[in-house]
Amino acid sequence: MRKPLLSLAVIVAFILPWALVLLVRPVEPVPEWCEVPYRIDNQGKPSGMINAVMHTRFKADGSGSSMLMGTVIVQDRQYRLNRVSVSSWHRQGDFMLVNTRKVQVMADDTVPEALAVQILFTSARESHNDYYQMYQLPNGDQIINYSGMPRLYCHT
Asked: Across the chain, which distance is largest between two alpha carbons, in Å?
């Protein structure tokens, strides 16, 4: 009688903490709408500035889309930036992997492709993976970080 009780106590001691961690951990909602206004001043080659806004939607089925709109100024020339990308995403705990599957350059986008490859950040490039860290805010919204800097503010 004592042996089965001791075996049960050992099993409970090892399994119960893990069960509680998995069951009690709060399920964080999918960040649905994200927006980031940003301005990048590039001092390197080519020197210039990007002033744009990115609107992103992450759907519960693991798909997503983004619109990148703004202006690019390089060597006193101004270009219109207007691109739409389609992505897939996967979240694991506080981390998210986003794969940009397709980028569509809209008709009014005037950024030359050779320049776009040099200056646009990675999520605006096809077949690129971005890894993000996510933080839940007290109001339910989320911050998505990249390299320790806020990247997207998301409403759930």
From this structure: 86
User: Token pair of 64, please?
Assistant: 């997503």
Mean pLDDT by groups of 10 residues along the chain of 156 residues: 69 60 52 78 77 89 92 92 92 82 95 86 78 77 62 59
Residues 43, 15: Cα–Cα separation, whole Å: 56
Q: Render the burial of 92-119: b for 16+ CB within 10 Å, e for the rest.
A: eeeebebbbeebeeeeebebeeeebeeb
The answer to whether 30 and 156 are in contact (CB under 8 A) is: yes
According to DSSP, the β-strands at 128-136 and 95-105 are antiparallel
Alpha helices for the chain (secondary structure H): 2-24, 113-119
| Alpha-carbon distances, residue 84 vs 24, 58, 67, 90, 127 (angstroms) | 39, 14, 5, 20, 14
Residue 93 is given by DSSP the state T
* DSSP state at residue 25: S
In one letter, which amino acid is 48?
G
To the nearest 10°, report the CA torsion of 15, 16, 17, 18.
50
| Nearest CA among 156, 98, 109 for reference residue 131 | 98
